[in-house]
Amino acid sequence: TIAAAADLKFAMDEIVTAFKRANPADRVDVIYGSSGKFNTQIREGAPYDLFFSADIAYPRELAKEGLAASEVKPYAVGRIVLWSASRDATKMTLASLADPKVARIAIANPKHAPYGKRAEEALRSAGVWDKVQPKLVYGENIAQTAQFVQSGNAQAGIIALSLAVNPELAAKGGYALISDALHSPLEQGYVITRRAAGNPLARRFADYMGGKPARAVMVKYGFVLPGESAAK
Amino acid sequence: MFLSEGDLGAIVLTLELAGIVTAILLVLGTPIAWWLARTKSWLKGPLGAVVALPLVLPPSVLGFYLLLAMGPHGPVGHFTQWLGIGTLPFTFWGLVVASVFYSLPFMVQPVQNAFETIGDRPLEVAATLRASPIDTFFTVVLPLALPGFLTASILTFAHTVGEFGVVLMIGGNIPDETRVVSVQIYDHVEALAYGHAHRLSAVMLAFSFLVLLTLYAWRPNPKKH
Amino acid sequence: MFLSEGDLGAIVLTLELAGIVTAILLVLGTPIAWWLARTKSWLKGPLGAVVALPLVLPPSVLGFYLLLAMGPHGPVGHFTQWLGIGTLPFTFWGLVVASVFYSLPFMVQPVQNAFETIGDRPLEVAATLRASPIDTFFTVVLPLALPGFLTASILTFAHTVGEFGVVLMIGGNIPDETRVVSVQIYDHVEALAYGHAHRLSAVMLAFSFLVLLTLYAWRPNPKKH
Amino acid sequence: MDMTQTRPGIHARFNLGFKDFSLNVDLEMPGRGVTALFGHSGSGKTTLLRCIAGLERAPAGYLSVDGEVWQDAATFVPTHRRPLGYVFQEASLFPHLSVRRNLEYGLKRVAPAARKVSLDHAVDLLGIGPLLDRLPERLSGGEKQRVAIARALAISPRILLMDEPLAALDLARKQEILPYLERLHDELEIPILYVSHAPDEVARLADYIVAMEHGRVAAQGPLGETLARLDLPIRLGEDAGVVLEGEIAELDQAWHLARVASAGGSLWVRDNGLPVGQHVRVRILARDISLALEPHGDSSILNVLPARVEQLADDTHPALALVKLNAAGAPLVARITRRSAARLELRPGQTVWAQIKAVALVG
Amino acid sequence: MDMTQTRPGIHARFNLGFKDFSLNVDLEMPGRGVTALFGHSGSGKTTLLRCIAGLERAPAGYLSVDGEVWQDAATFVPTHRRPLGYVFQEASLFPHLSVRRNLEYGLKRVAPAARKVSLDHAVDLLGIGPLLDRLPERLSGGEKQRVAIARALAISPRILLMDEPLAALDLARKQEILPYLERLHDELEIPILYVSHAPDEVARLADYIVAMEHGRVAAQGPLGETLARLDLPIRLGEDAGVVLEGEIAELDQAWHLARVASAGGSLWVRDNGLPVGQHVRVRILARDISLALEPHGDSSILNVLPARVEQLADDTHPALALVKLNAAGAPLVARITRRSAARLELRPGQTVWAQIKAVALVG
Ligand SMILES: Nc1ncnc2c1ncn2[C@@H]1O[C@H](COP(=O)(O)OP(=O)(O)OP(=O)(O)O)[C@@H](O)[C@H]1O
Ligand SMILES: Nc1ncnc2c1ncn2[C@@H]1O[C@H](COP(=O)(O)OP(=O)(O)OP(=O)(O)O)[C@@H](O)[C@H]1O
Ligand SMILES: [Mg+2]
Ligand SMILES: [Mg+2]
Questions:
Q1: For A57-86, what is each residue's pLDDT tens digit?
Q2: What average pLDDT does the structure give for chain B?
Q3: What per-residue confidence (pLDDT) applies to C209?
Q4: Within a domain: residue B118?
Q5: Which of B46, B56, B189 is nearest residue C208 as measured by Cβ atoms?
Q6: Average pLDDT over residues A149-170
Q7: Which has more pLDDT, B157 or E240?
Q8: ipTM confidence
């Protein structure tokens, strides 16, 4: 069983399908959810073998406490984009968020969502934080943030690139990639849990993630691979 | 300080929300409960069931549908925009509307039960003593249904305090406007700020305990009929 | 197909969970409600309030605390390990325990009200007709409190179906074991798979409507006392 | 329908069906005085009162009270707009209100100008003063019923419907309340519809009798006439008898007696403090009259009237006979054994002496 | 306490305080026959019955029934283990059960061997056969009460507590039920505690009388003695009188009469179908006796007994006097006017003729 950050949903589904085609005898279940929740649950003995976190800090923490059976490996770097459902976001910049016509801006909660934290950093670096802050609404996670924008209740939002390329969202408006210079890198990492120490399948799947087909899928769904830069 | 300023703001906001929702539901739920308790129409069953339906959906999913409905493209949103009050999501009143919708069964069901057990006789007696139906309702039915109202209010109040799925979705977690305590505690937990979460939870529990205890103390002793 | 296999599995699991939780709460909540309804102890108020407290915490925070308590390092966890049944989180029975805890007030409060309105007389009459207190409870109190039980069951059932905050935390979303419909719908919405979410929501609503309607149809007509 | 014109008195026509019972009545009752509703358990008395109060809605019913139409094809005045007082068969106090607030409930809803009954007086008379601050659950059965009576009186109704109001009360209490009810209907001139199984209450209070049987009116008529009819389906049993009108002609202060001059002759009754000239009503039960062929001076029986035998009829028991007498124009009924009737060779037209053991002043 | 030894009959001692009322009784009642509980509304009759049933728990109370201790310092038998039947003042049927299932409720809980009362018979006699499938909310007041009586009888209790069971019933119905209750207590030999305000019921049914006043026992004793006492605080009013024991000596089939040979002499009563030799009880009301100085053959009064005047006493009204007579050893009480007493110059020791207008056979 794999616990994967919600933003991996589409990419991971495709990777798992491919993996199963290659290894028909193996059974792989993926559960998507919030990385923080998985972190807590693994401490309390949740039966997850692999943990793909949206923030590499969580698996690192687990490893430090001896709950991991492998090193923490980065598998992707998340990027954030400015997105809108009601206007052409490709022409927008962070500065245009100060426009009074943009009444509400959705970001994920910077307190616990990694994408939200990067969004806040980017807004601060762009120097619009003070003007924009009263207009902010906070989503529980990046998906909810997207829904705020998608339903038209927020005119714009900062979401993950991986979500913005989703056909459901791409059909409306467009997105503008936010320079990764404006925020600290959002490293995503995975770890094999202690529970799966004797589970060869876990290791095989981890290895598969590092392989070429998997990497291609990741890129297709808007992830930037460690050491590479965003393909636009 | 023991609690941060944000926590205090959230507490005040929560109590306001729960209080207002409970008050609105008392006004709104009572006639529905009355109708359900007294009607002989075949609609009683279906409508009774519909009242309980909001409970069946997961709160954040319900929140999502409400967000669509109340958004600028939804039917409720069209209506509120036509009224000139803009759209409701991300406002305190949006929270109120959503919570009212979600907590409706907690108000209606116990009150309906209380109404049903009163029976016809007290109403008949009141009528022979010149009380009009509305008069009777306030002077006989309401007092006799008091335990039902208390139960309903307790469930509604507590549930509104604890709800956060709908609230987060509709409210957008805006400090001092829609960031209620449940969301605040949730944030603390998600941010792994457990100490903070524990403190706030303890305060909420203690406070709610007192509120509930007061409600209980009011509760009249069971009556023999 | 209209629904995926995972959806069907989740529906079955949900109904099992809601059914079991409602059944357990009927057994567990009834004596508590009875005690609360009949006692003259000063503990009535405080304990009555405590029963409603789980409602006040946001579900996922409550889930968090339950997770800590039932986990390998928590008191409940120690106990279950000592019993040799391992720990409860991430198992179906963990979900059941958590839901029972969370839904307790929905069962206890309406039933307590129903018990209170019965009054002493029917119990006295039963005693003069040779019925022991337990006999009386089953042959007189339960039938007279039926509407209260129905309301309680409706609220408990619907609420267990809809709950997902606690469930997600304790259950860990494991297919066929703890992935109930509410979590499934939530996942669909989170994954922006709206079509899928709509379908599943519609099925759940329709199905729940039928269940509630059946419960309502059973509901006896109001009695004049 | 030509029934909507203004008519005095109470006119009621109801057809109402329950599963195993149907009420079919067409009644004309006087607009003042006490009408007693009589009948077996389950004969429809309560149902009739409920129809009159508007608590039961008989389709195609008709009801007018003193010319005011309360129900017809086009009208249905709701209960709370009908100026009536209702004492339910079960006391039905509001359980959440103290006795005092139960009493005030109706009172408050009546305009001060329309309040004609003194609540304080009713409270005193019904002996419920000490109970005012109690909740109904702490009252005895009779106490509840007395509160219910006071509550119905407090609204100064224009018609009073009472469903066995005194059933749970002891004799002494009844004897305090009855004269009060009598005065009430005299002073306020309100009609009272009174359900009772107690023949003494009926004989004492009623001016008009309605006997119900299986949801139908078996007999109705003024008290005096109706009681003297030997063929009546109302079985008053031990309390068969007649009521005579008269007035106080003389007071014998030494013996606390009063002489009533009635149509049938002079009758000595206990002196109840009424003045000479006062119009009164006396009740003479059939069981209290014995017959003799001659007057006897040495008996303790005070009242002996000459009378003519008019008719002999069967009574409920084959050992007994009812004898209808004519005492100077006034009807009397005596109950004697058949053997005595034979021994005295009683036959219509014969003159006898009616020895009246007891005469009760009933109003 | 030396009260725990085995004693026949019912011994009850209770002290129980409510806010404005306290019950203080110490009673010895016979273990068979009917004990009538009498007293004003609010005098504590219901409270006493509740204590006996164990529904109210008087601290430091004592209760034994036929030697079985139901309550003392150490014991408190819970209500459902006391083999009693209770008819509540309000019918108190289970609202969720049909009449039939109400009746069966207690019956089912009694071992078949212990069932001595025929439910079918009770149902017939109480006239509730057609109601069996109804819910209580669809019954009239009297119907409810009849079902409640049948329900209490169905469990074949060893003691029957009845709180005004016949209050809501009409005379005819009462007269059907009373003989049934009489037979019941004769055949089953169970004691009945019977609260009633109706003196005729009491006189007819009771063997023993307990008069309550303000929560205390004002008087108690066997019916005959107690009724003949002129100083009694129980105001039976119109129904003061005595009860004589006797047996049927002769039947007069032509006139449907029976002659009862009693201590006081021969009395003719209606023939109720009882055989010669049957032990019976006759009730003679004070109001039915007139006194004459000589016997009169030409009167319709069948029963005339010679008697000696023993005592004259005041009655409730100053116009009236009660005269206690001794008829061949049997006590009689006559109510006459003071004027007649003076005219006949009645004084103790004098011989008079007691003309008895009506004699009722009461068991
Ligand atoms: N709601 C009802 N549904 C069906 N039958 C009813 C209902 N109410 C009364 N009845 C029946 O109608 C008949 C008349 O009832 P009602 O109460 O008028 O009798 P009543 O004359 O007042 O008798 P009682 O002297 O016993 O009070 C009874 O046989 C009763 O069983
Ligand atoms: N639960 C209670 N609390 C306080 N007072 C009570 C309670 N029950 C009864 N009483 C009082 O006790 C007294 C005796 O009541 P009880 O019911 O025994 O009277 P009763 O003799 O049966 O009268 P009735 O003939 O009216 O039924 C009454 O004055 C009543 O008000
Ligand atoms: Mg009736
Ligand atoms: Mg009583």
A1: 888 888 888 888 888 888 888 888 888 887
A2: 84
A3: 85
A4: yes
A5: B56
A6: 83
A7: B157
A8: 0.83
Tally of structural domains, chain B: 1
- The structure's pTM equals 0.85
Mean pLDDT confidence for D291-319: 82
Give which of D80, D155, D156 to mutate to test B binding, by max B Cβ within 10 Å. Answer: D80
Residues of chain A in Cβ contact (below 8 Å) with chain B: 34, 36-37, 39-40, 104, 106, 109, 111-113, 136-140, 144, 147-148, 151-154
Q: How many Cα atoms sit within 13 Å of C209 on the Cβ side?
A: 11
Task: Please report how the helices B5-38 and B44-52 are oriented relative to each other, as an axis angle in degrees rounded to 10.
Answer: 170
Residue E103's closest chain C neighbor by CA? C129
Residue intervals of chain E classified under CATH 3.40.50.300 are 10-227
What's at A46, amino acid-wise?
A
Q: Which residues surround ligand 3, an ion (CB under 5 A)?
A: D 46, 89; E 140-141
Architecture of domain E10-227: 3-Layer(aba) Sandwich (3.40)
**Residue B140 in this model has a pLDDT that exceeds 70:** yes
Which of C121, C135, C144 comes nearest E96 by C-beta?
Answer: C144
Judge whether B199 and B215 are in contact, CB under 8 Å.
no
Give the C-alpha distances (Å, rounded to integers) separating E294 from E49, E85, E311. Answer: 49, 52, 20
* Chains E and C physically touch (3 or more Cβ atom pairs below 8 Å): yes
Residue where the block lists tokens 């009882």: E274
Say yes or no to pLDDT of D6 above 60.
no
- At residue B152, does pLDDT exceed 70? yes
- Could you state, in chain order, the average pLDDT of each consecutive group of 10 residues for chain E (363 residues)? 59 90 90 84 92 91 90 92 92 92 92 84 87 92 90 90 84 75 76 82 79 87 69 56 82 86 84 82 81 81 87 79 85 85 86 80 60
**DSSP assignment of E241-255, as one string?**
EEEEEEEEEEEEGGG
Residue C102 C-alpha, separation from nearest chain A C-alpha, in angstroms = 19
Pairing state between β E303-314 and E257-262: unpaired
Alpha helices, H only, E190-285: 199-205, 223-228
Kindly give the distance from the C-alpha atom of residue B148 to the centroid of ligand 2, in angstroms, as a whole number.
30
CB B7 within 8 A of CB B184: yes
Residue carrying structure tokens 């203690």: B206
The three-point CA angle C39-C40-C45 to 5° equals 85
Q: What residues does CATH 2.40.50.100 cover in chain D?
A: 241-361
Residue C223 covered by a domain: no
Selecting from A36, A148, A151 the residue whose C-beta is nearest the C-beta of B190 gives A36
Asked if the structure places residue B164 within a domain, the reply is: yes
Give the three-class secondary structure for D82.
coil
Cβ contacts of E358 within 8 Å, gap of 6 or more: D287, E285, E288
Neighbour count for residue D201 (Cβ, 10 Å): 22
Q: Is residue B223 part of a domain?
A: no
The span from the CA of A55 to the CA of C165, in Å, is 22
- Give me the residue label for tokens 């800090």: A57
pLDDT interval class at B2 (50, 70, 90): low
Question: Ligand 4: distance of its center to the CA of E285 in Å?
Answer: 27
Q: What is the signed CA dihedral for D41, D42, D45, D51, rounded to 10 degrees? A: 160
Domain containing B192: what range? 5-218
Predicted pLDDT of residue E232: 55
Q: What was the pLDDT predicted at D242?
A: 78
The pLDDT score that the predictor gives to residue A9 is 81
- The reply to whether CATH 2.40.50.100 applies to domain E241-361 is yes
Q: What is the DSSP letter of E245?
A: E
- Going by pLDDT thresholds of 50, 70 and 90, the confidence category of residue C223 is very low
CATH (domain of B96):
1.10.3720.10
Q: Which residue has the higher pLDDT, B72 or B222?
A: B72
User: What phi and psi values does residue E50 have, to the nearest 5 degrees?
Assistant: -65, -40
**D285: CA distance to ligand 3 center in Å?**
27
